[in-house]
């Protein structure tokens, strides 16, 4: 991680934990919003009006949080509005790096080698982890936002006047229900798998495992319609999908969330296929990056052997 703008080595095994050994994810620092006219959003400062090509999205295709943003960009038809730079899926001693792997880009703007250089461009004294996704303003050369929950939401509305879309990922009539489910989904499932995977405490692992499967059971129960809130896809579906698509191939083995697989849940299995069939969504899923990325986490897999995708995932994704 960066401390006062300097990269500290040997960061990989050092995951922040609470006093009972539970994995704690860092909170995001850059919280400005792109808006139609550059007015300030719910947090941060204004000055970031929607403009075609102005903002770049830095992502890792292994990363579920970055994938949320990528999927929203796809479903809202923003490909031509928002260019993307993909980092190498293999975590290095200096965090995410550019290039050097099929499907990984060089940094188009600063020729940076590592993602942490983008953070020190934004703040030469930045302290924290150099996470993805990052939304970068190529005009002012500042970081707009590094929180995927915000990015998902701003992509839903900020570019509407430039690229109209019928899809509402956060419709007003569902806002309260979405806001109620999102934090539980995050805590128990999206981040729950990481809590199971990164803890060094047996009780914390078992607690996380309970949560993961309680939420999978709940989602299975809930999915009587096509999507979590009925017949139209929302941001919560995106949040659920990014974990479900990684579950059987990565989390089940590496993070030891191995009581059941998504394929053991009939409705969740159909739901994942339905999500994959949304226009463009399949293009955001790169199972090679996912497998290489997760299994390159040395603290969890010291020998770096990368498993093959399970047969049902290979079939699902036509690998
Ligand atoms: N709150 C952030 C979390 C992003 C995050 O944790 N990204 C991970 C990859 S999945 C990362 O970049 N980790 C690098 C690190 O921890 O050093 C968001 O949702 O945008």
From TrEMBL:
Record-level Gene Ontology MF annotations: glutathione transferase activity
Superkingdom of origin: Bacteria
Active site, renumbered: 63, 194
InterPro entries: Glutathione-S-Trfase_C-like (IPR010987), Glutathione-S-Trfase_C_sf (IPR036282), Glutathione_S-Trfase (IPR040079), Glutathione_S-Trfase_N (IPR004045), GST_Omega-like_C (IPR047047), GST_Omega/GSH (IPR016639), Thioredoxin-like_sf (IPR036249)
Ranges where the GST C-terminal domain occurs: 171-305
Annotated site (Lowers pKa of active site Cys): 251, 294
Binding site for glutathione: 96, 129-132, 147-148
One GO CC annotation: cytoplasm
Coiled coil (residue ranges): none
Xref: PROSITE patterns: GST_CTER
UniProt-recorded name of the protein: Glutathione-dependent reductase
Species this chain originates from: Ruegeria marisrubri
């Amino acid at each position: 991680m960066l401390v006062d703008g300097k990269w500290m080595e040997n960061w990989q095994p050092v995951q922040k934990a609470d006093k009972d050994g539970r994995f704690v994810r860092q909170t995001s620092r850059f919280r400005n919003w792109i808006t139609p006219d550059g007015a300030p959003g719910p947090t941060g400062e204004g000055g970031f009006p929607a403009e075609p090509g102005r903002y770049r999205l830095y992502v890792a295709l292994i990363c579920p949080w970055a994938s949320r943003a990528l999927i929203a960009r796809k479903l809202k038809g923003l490909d031509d509005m928002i260019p993307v730079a993909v980092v190498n899926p293999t975590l290095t001693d200096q965090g995410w790096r550019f290039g050097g792997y099929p499907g990984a880009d060089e940094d188009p703007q600063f020729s940076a080698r590592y993602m942490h250089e983008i953070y020190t461009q934004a703040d030469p004294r930045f302290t924290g982890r150099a996470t993805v996704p990052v939304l970068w303003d190529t005009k002012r050369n500042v970081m707009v936002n590094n929180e995927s929950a915000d990015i998902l939401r701003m992509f839903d509305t900020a570019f509407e006047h430039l690229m109209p879309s019928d899809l509402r990922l956060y419709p007003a009539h569902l806002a309260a229900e979405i806001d109620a489910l999102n934090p539980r989904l995050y805590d128990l499932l999206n981040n729950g798998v990481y809590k199971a995977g990164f803890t060094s405490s047996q009780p914390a692992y078992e607690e996380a495992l309970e949560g993961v499967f309680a939420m999978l059971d709940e989602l299975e129960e809930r999915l009587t319609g096509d999507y979590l809130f009925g017949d139209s896809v929302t941001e919560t579906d995106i949040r659920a999908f990014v974990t479900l698509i990684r579950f059987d191939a990565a989390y089940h083995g590496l993070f030891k969330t191995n009581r059941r697989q998504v394929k053991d849940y009939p409705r969740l299995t159909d739901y994942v296929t339905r999500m994959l069939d949304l226009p463009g969504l399949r293009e955001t899923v790169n199972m090679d990056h996912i497998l290489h990325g997760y299994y390159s986490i040395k603290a969890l897999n010291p020998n770096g052997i990368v498993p093959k995708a399970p047969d049902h995932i290979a079939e699902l994704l036509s690998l």
